[in-house]
Design a protein that fits this description.
alpha+beta, three-stranded mixed beta sheet, nine-stranded antiparallel beta sheet, binds 5,6-dihydrouridine-5'-monophosphate
Amino acid sequence: MTLPAGAHRRYNPLLDEWVLCSPGRLQRPWQGQVEAAPPGQLPAYDPGCYLCPGNARAGGARNPPYTATFAFDNDFPALGPAPEAATSEPADGLLVARRVSGVCRVLCFSPRHDLTLALMSPAEIRPVVDAWAEESARLAAREDVVHVQVFENKGEMMGASNPHPHCQVWATAHLPTLAARRLAGQRRHFETRGADLLGDCLARELSDGTRLVCDNPHWVALVPFWAVWPFETMLLPRRRVPDLPSLASEERDALAEILSRLNVRYDNLFGCSFPYSMGWHARPADGGEHPWWRLHASYSPPLLRSATVRKFVVGYELAAEAQRDLAPEEAADRLRTASERHYRAEAAR
Ligand code: H2U
């Protein structure tokens, strides 16, 4: 496949949107914002942390002396039981508001305050994979839930409120905007081509190779052709599974392994604890089969040039269309050549 050498647009069939790709634009000088360097070494236990074992949380509850993962109801949930207030559905379609209901959970990955997935071994990550699956299954089984969103905000730059390794799980009675677009995109491809969209993309990427980052017998990490964030990646299972609970034991082990490798590569890219937002995308929990849906995870990291210079989603992007300066193929090449031995382990030798 020959790609245009200069500026061009790429189509994202999953979200039915375009991204403007302007390779070479990274040459421009940068005299803009430089972020503070990420915090250095943290203590293994922080008596002031709301998430460490045995500590009191902001809402007053006390964490148990947990030894692996620990999940609890968010003390400051964005959603709760459906409020009584009436919905607003005027006939003219303006000023529409609907009630929402849901459940918000917090999941700690480890009792250790100083770890991240990049610093945990695959054996330590496996309980995290199981906890993602358990939380998803339990919430998806509820009558009042049609969508379960697992996501992790890592790093101050991405708005994480606490460095203790954790993610959140929000389950809702409605299908959120982006999940609905993922559903439409996968369904459209299935109905016109008779196969699942991400399975077809995976086959193309495996034969092309230029956007692959790393893989194992069950998973592939790649930079999507239509990536928006400079070092955005997608994790795809080789078998079409619709959600986390459907993963077999060997697929969960392999997921823990590839998560470890991908996160180490990210940290090694700029020699820092790499910030990102990560989300799992599973089929709607509405009881439907959704044969078009393939489970996938997206990593959206903000860093562009170094540990302290990030990409800003502003200007043209807010006014017109997503845009990137670094070609996805170049980002994949840099992630592919990054070491899988963590720089901190290397420094300790
Ligand atoms: P973030 O770092 O992605 O913000 O996630 C931390 C979540 O933990 C956040 O949603 C919750 C916050 O509401 N939290 C509690 O539920 N209890 C606490 O004592 C502190 C933080």
